[in-house]
Amino acid sequence: MELRHLRYFVAVAEELNFTRAAERLGIGQPPLSLQIRQLEEELGTQLFRRKARGVELTPAGKLLLEEARIILRQVEQAETGVRRRARGETGRVILGSGGATYFHPLIPAIIREFSVRYPDVVLHPQASSTALLMARLHAGQIDAAFVRPSVDDSEGLALHLLVDEPMVMVVPKHHPLGTKSSAPLRSFTNEPFILYARELNPDYHDRVIAACRDAGFEPRLGPQAPQILPVIPMVAAGLGVSIVPESTRQIRLDGVVYLEIEGKVPRSRISLAHRRDDRSAPVRNLVAIARRVAGGRTGAAGEGWRGDPRAP
Amino acid sequence: MELRHLRYFVAVAEELNFTRAAERLGIGQPPLSLQIRQLEEELGTQLFRRKARGVELTPAGKLLLEEARIILRQVEQAETGVRRRARGETGRVILGSGGATYFHPLIPAIIREFSVRYPDVVLHPQASSTALLMARLHAGQIDAAFVRPSVDDSEGLALHLLVDEPMVMVVPKHHPLGTKSSAPLRSFTNEPFILYARELNPDYHDRVIAACRDAGFEPRLGPQAPQILPVIPMVAAGLGVSIVPESTRQIRLDGVVYLEIEGKVPRSRISLAHRRDDRSAPVRNLVAIARRVAGGRTGAAGEGWRGDPRAP
DNA sequence: ATCTTCGATATTCGACGCGTATGGTTGGCT
DNA sequence: AGCCAACCATACGCGTCGAATATCGAAGAT
Predict the structure, then answer these.
(1) Nearest Cβ partner for B71 among A47, A71, A91
(2) Contact residues, chain B, for A2 at CB < 8 Å
(3) How high does pLDDT run on average in chain B?
(4) Which of the residues B71, B82, B85, B93 would you substitute to probe the A interface, choosing the one with the greatest number of A C-beta atoms within 10 Å?
(5) CB contact under 8 A, A85 and B60
(6) What region, left, alpha or beta, does residue A128 occupy, with left being phi > 0 and alpha being psi -120 to 50 degrees?
(7) B4, B60, B71 member nearest A75 (Cβ)
(8) Is the Cβ pair A4, B2 closer than 8 Å?
(9) Fewer Cβ within 10 Å of end Cβ, chain B: N or C?
(10) B72, B56, B93, B55: which is closest to B3 by C-alpha?
């Protein structure tokens, strides 16, 4: 049996007239008669009772009409379903977010935009550390992730630069610098410097150290934080000072003060990472939307997420 | 899209190898490749990712695999469903029963046998009077009925004789005849004779009267009963005497006594009636089973349902 | 580097679905 | 009663499409 048989059968069953059904199908009446006859022979039973004026359905024909309609509808739904899946309009994206990237307004904006454009793609957000996310990406456990990457192209992963934001100093409220709104980085000489654990993101760690050396001092290492985010409450607790991406200023924790860095400003990038060989349409769409929402800010020397307080 | 595409697709998706799938389908590999390509073009997307060693499903392919399996299963079920319906193994029969026919053991035996043989045919039993059942048959409200018919072939209805049973006399317990086990019909001379209303089954009525005249007397008409069945309690109530089909002896009502008729014994027939133009398979099957269960008793001069107490 | 595996391509053949022409039956109209 | 119109079945030629055979090409495996 082929779908043609069912399509023809439904047409005849609805018209109860071979000639009209054939016209509706855009074929001649004789081939239609033949196809119906074939169907009847294959099923071993009459489907229509041929009367002088048109035809009528036999009980078996009535049953087949119900079934055929269901099948044809299902085929149609399968077609559009597959097409939509291919366009990335349905499906699932497990989306990681690390390094406190979700505090940058661009990230929720991207996610919001994607959800609006692709409401039938189920997003599974997952917050973790950049290093863990990279590993899970490789392992196929997640599909994409917002990260502050160490290298621009780790094996097999594609990275799309979205943000390049300046970092800011963060000190306890009652720190001598607490009344200022900016300071040179070297003000941190001899201050206990809270850092993101090196194992989890060597690049970030090293860039911070390098920034200090650039500013002319060797940071006095204080306690380590497992992620960027916990650095803030640790500073609030008076365990030391640190520098963090400007977007974490969103965390208006009582007890901490953010200062813009005078002089050469270290910067931190946010990229969207996914497997390079992942041709999945939803991920492609996510990347496209991310780049679009990031807009002009995607350049290698991209701006911060707002009025760029960068040094000359 | 045709079912062929789906069948081929599922084979490839299951084997993940065009060559093996083609073997399984009993076709060559090149045509299989072509059909899959056609399907992909129609859907506007790749369904397989061709790798050096075999192929793998794309996300759209995975979705289509699920859908295709469902569709193919549904097509199969539709086929077998239609075949079964055509054989009368599924469906519905509205089955009337009139004239107290259901007290003849053959009737429940037929119904039981039919239910066992065709467990998926839903039987809707309906007890009524013979005349009403005939009308409903004509109107298509019921499909078949056990009746004690007046004529052997009313317009458009086919009748299959199942039973030809003797009638017996029924008298109140304290009637002078109440101690006997048989009597001549003329013992009813001058007794009030309870009869089934003539309008509802003229034939039955007339045959009873004729039997009395044969026996040499004119029955003295007593009260009328709307159906055969209520005759028995009316006799028990002392309203008169009557004759009833032997099978109603099953009703062992306190206060009535049944007597075999000596001499020429009037008889009553049970037939299975259905519309002559009704080719519905379940009805055909019901007729076949009824004739089989009725066995040798179907002859025009068929026996009673047990040891035939017929006059010579 | 060579061989093997496996899918793609090219070409021919055959079957089947479709169109045109025609026949046959039945119900309705005059 | 007879003719006509409606409508399905049959007959036959044509074109398309699906399948088989032969061959190629790419990518792992040894």
Answers:
(1) A71
(2) 2-4
(3) 87
(4) B82
(5) yes
(6) beta
(7) B71
(8) yes
(9) C
(10) B72
Which chain C nucleotides are covered by protein, judged by CB under 7 A?
5-11, 17-21, 25-28
Q: Rounded to the nearest 5 degrees, what angle is found at the Cα of B253, between the Cα atoms of B305 and B221?
A: 85
Q: Which of A215, A191, A304, A209 is nearest to A263 (CA)?
A: A215
Phi-psi region of B91 (alpha: psi -120 to 50; beta: other; left: phi over 0): left
Residue with smallest Cα–C1' gap to C24 = A52
- CB-based contacts of A255, cutoff 8 Å, min separation 6: A172, A173, A235, A236, A237
CB of A231 within 8 A of CB of A244?
yes
Question: Are A214 and A293 within 8 A, CB to CB?
Answer: no
pTM of the entire predicted model = 0.81
**Token pair for B186:** 């003329």
31-50 on A, CB < 7 Å from strand C: 31, 34-35, 38
pLDDT tens track for A131-167:
888 889 988 899 999 998 766 556 788 889 999 999 9
How many Cβ atoms are within 10 Å of A128's Cβ, its own excluded? 18
Distance A35 CA to C16 C1' (A): 11
Q: Which residues of B touch A1 (CB under 8 A)?
A: 3, 75, 79
Distance CA A130, CA B71 (A): 44
Rounded CA–C1' distance between A175 and D4, in angstroms: 110
Nearest to B1 among A67, A79, A91 (CB): A79
- Residue B199 has a CB neighbour count (10 Å cut-off) of 11
Residue B5 · residue B67 · CB < 8 Å: no
pLDDT in tens, B258-278: 999 998 899 988 999 999 888
Residues of chain A under the 50 pLDDT cut:
298-312
| Structure token digits, residue B237 | 């109530």
Task: Round to whole Å and give the CA distance between A15 and A9.
Answer: 10
Phi/psi for B208 (5° steps) reads -65, -45
The structure tokens listed for B109 are 């035996």
Q: Return the beta strands (E) in chain A as ranges.
A: 48-50, 55-57, 91-98, 121-128, 144-147, 157-172, 182-184, 192-196, 220-225, 242-245, 256-262, 267-275
Nearest chain B CA: its distance from A84 CA (Å): 8
DSSP summary character for residue B28: -
The tokens for B235 are: 């006799």
Chain B positions touching A67 (Cβ under 8 A) are 74, 77-78, 81-82
- Please give the radius of gyration of chain B, using alpha carbons only, rounded to the nearest integer: 32
Give the nearest nucleotide to A29, CA to C1': D8
- Burial string for A55-83 (b: 16+ CB within 10 Å, else e) reads bebbbbbbbbbebbeebbebbeebbebbb
What is the spatial distance between Cα A273 and Cα A136, in angstroms, rounded to a whole number?
Answer: 11
Extract the tokens encoding A32.
Answer: 């239609």
pLDDT of B72 higher than 90? yes
Asked if B106 and B163 count as a contact pair (C-beta separation under 8 A), the reply is yes
Shortest CA distance to A275 belongs to which of A263, A289, A291, A287? A287
DSSP codes joined into one string, A62-88: HHHHHHHHHHHHHHHHHHHHHHHHHTT
pLDDT value at B151 more than 50: yes
* CA nearest to nucleotide C4 C1': residue: B53
